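Recall the central idea of this unit: under ordinary conditions, the amino acid sequence of a chain determines the structure it adopts. In this exercise we apply that idea directly, starting from the sequence alone.
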Amino acid sequence: MSKAGNIAPVILIGRPNMRLCPSARDKVPHSFLRVLSKYSLFQNTVLRALAFQAPIIVCHESYHRLVQQQLDEIKVRPRVIILEPEYKGGTSSVTLAAFYLKNQGERMLILPSDHVLEDAGFEACVYDALDKVENHIVLFGVKPSRGENGYGYITCAEEQGASRKVARFVEKPDAKYAQKLFKEPHCFWNTGIFLSRPRIFLDELKKFEPETHKYCQRAFYAGQEDGSIYLLAGDDFSKILPMSVGHAILEMCQKVYMYEMSVSWNDLGRWPQIIRLKVQSIFKREKRINNEPRPHRRAS
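Accordingly, the structure predicted from this sequence is:
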């Protein structure tokens, strides 16, 4: 199996972000918005995932039509779309994908659908991180460019190299603490992107959140695949407690490493972050236009 064939990208679409009205008020997750290009954040994530395989997509069942519409626009056929009957957070979404991939010999690459990152170099970073993923969960972090209080942080052991043992997590600190973390040499933004063998993720979930593991397992195996759609059993799924992957597993797990990505990354979860990137893209475009050679005018 090739390296690309050994990595199964899993794209997560969360609930509408109430900090991004009016889109959230209209019940449209900002993943589907065209913020910085002709493609939506979700479409750009799908196109990025194609460096590996056709993606697995996990989302609320109410987004099925919109997901399919945006996939058709870019002419991509997913491996499967797993439809959740309720919002239960990232843990259930990743767990369902892990059950889908269990015993298939692949690593799952978890990709939030509302991020902007520099595609050049990302694929190489994922392949470089594979050496740690055999018995570990490998998070992808980036060096902060500012003290951003809207992001989560990872502090690491004082090791050399791109892969480092995770020491602790800090979830969205206040502005003052964010500035302090920004100045720490072994502190990184937590991108929410990670690599794991499905077996490792499920074993750690069963250890720390056995009830979530049990109800996800029941909901998955009582469900059925219909073409490119996987429908879950709603009765068991409704018993799952909403939980982030960080709170469910990562903060307690001793098998977590972080790989430092040397690419530009942003999580567009708030309007200030969107506006900042929009302004930067305008300046870059103007700079490029101004530096282009101008046609020579002949004297009359």
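The radius of gyration is 20 Å.
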